TrEMBL record:
Transcription among keywords: no
Gene3D superfamilies found in the cross-reference section: Jelly Rolls
Pathway: Carbohydrate biosynthesis; dTDP-L-rhamnose biosynthesis
Designated name of the protein: dTDP-4-dehydrorhamnose 3,5-epimerase
Taxonomic lineage: Bacteria, Pseudomonadati, Balneolota, Balneolia, Balneolales
Organism: Gracilimonas halophila
Amino acid sequence: MKISETRIPAVKIIEPRVFEDDRGYFFEAYRKSVLAEAGIEDEFIQDNVSKSYRNAIRGLHYQIQNPQAKLVQCLRGSILDVAVDLRQDSPSFGNYVAIKLSDVSKRMLYIPKGFAHGFSVLSDEAIVAYKCSDYYNAERERGVRWDDPIIRINWDVSRPILSEKDRKLPLFSSIKEEDLF
Ligand SMILES: Cc1cn([C@H]2C[C@H](O)[C@@H](COP(=O)(O)OP(=O)(O)O[C@H]3O[C@@H](C)C(=O)[C@@H](O)[C@H]3O)O2)c(=O)[nH]c1=O
């Protein structure tokens, strides 16, 4: 398992060691001690799985009061996984990291607390699994618009499919200070 930093150092790429043989493949998807050596010490207490179709965009989402660190992998297909820095004292506040995750590369993305998360689907369908360091709480859920003109994410999809909820998310510039980190 190899862990490396992205252009926002707190967001990390995890590349598992994959063992292939005539039966198929095997890899360790989570190993607490290796992540801890790289400074990732969150306790993951909820696992989520979603399936989405080509051009779907989910996000950008985060939680206040009990923020969630996330460890994201794509078990089928490929996605562009995006993390936006919402930490007001960070030199990369408002910047984002976008990393392609797929069932071929098997790489994962670690997104700490203080970030909004979203992804677009680049394959016919994608199954995404992610660990969260706190429980989902609908009242504390917040979001930022996928097409925010300040953040300017290139999602690499043609005609995005979004949920009703995600279409109505606020713009980055209108997020109240208490809803940031
Ligand atoms: C996220 C979540 C949703 N739900 C329910 C609420 C809703 O009825 C249904 C679908 O929820 P959503 O439309 O919010 O699902 P989705 O848009 O996939 O939301 C997820 O997006 C990605 C990008 C994230 O980072 C996640 O934290 C989460 O916000 O599932 C739960 O019961 N538990 C959960 O943890």
